[in-house]
Amino acid sequence: MRAGVHVSIAGSIDKSVERAVAIGCNTFQLFTRSPRGWSFSDIPANVVSLFVEKLKKTDISPVVDHMPYLPNLASPNDEAYKKSVETLKAELLRCTLLGIPYLVTHLGSHLGSGEEKGCARLVSALNTAIGEVKTNCMILLENTAGQKNSMGTTFEDIHAIMDKTDYPKKIGFCFDTCHAFAGGYDLRTKIGEIMDQMDDVVGLSRLKVVHLNDSKGDLGGHLDRHEHIGLGMIGEAGFRLILAERRIRSLPLIMETPVDSRRDDRGNVVKLCELAGEPLVS
Question: Which domains does the chain have, with CATH numbers?
Answer without folding.
Answer: 3-276 (3.20.20.150)
